[in-house]
Amino acid sequence: MTPTARALAHPSREEIRVEGVLHALSDPMRLRIVRRLAGAAAELACSRFDLPVSKSTSTHHFRVLRESGVIRQIYRGTAKMSVLRSEDLDVLFPGLLDSVLSAVDLQAERLGED
């Protein structure tokens, strides 16, 4: 399927590579997005994220996460919704996402962050 203005390109499960996932997870803003998605009961609109960066930088971070296979994004009306691809990541790299999220939680606790 060719991406259009309303359909976004995502790697298939087989195309997701560990180095791409690790790169995507290496940025504090992207980790913040992933942490929020991991705690969400459902997909979240990009506008629900209050990131201390410009809109264009925020868009860049979501794109890196999507293109690496960490998140899936779809349009619902005019809202771009994001969801963590936990099942895909757990099949490909068992325990990786849980380990990273646990480490982020411990670090936040240690540093007195939210």
From TrEMBL:
InterPro entries: HTH_ArsR_DNA-bd_dom (IPR001845), HTH_MetalResp_TranReg (IPR051081), WH-like_DNA-bd_sf (IPR036388), WH_DNA-bd_sf (IPR036390). GO terms for molecular function: DNA binding; DNA-binding transcription factor activity. Pfam families: HTH_20. PANTHER family: TRANSCRIPTIONAL REGULATOR, ARSR FAMILY, TRANSCRIPTIONAL REGULATORY PROTEIN. The keyword Oxidoreductase does not apply. Residues 10-104 form the HTH arsR-type domain. This is Transcriptional regulator.
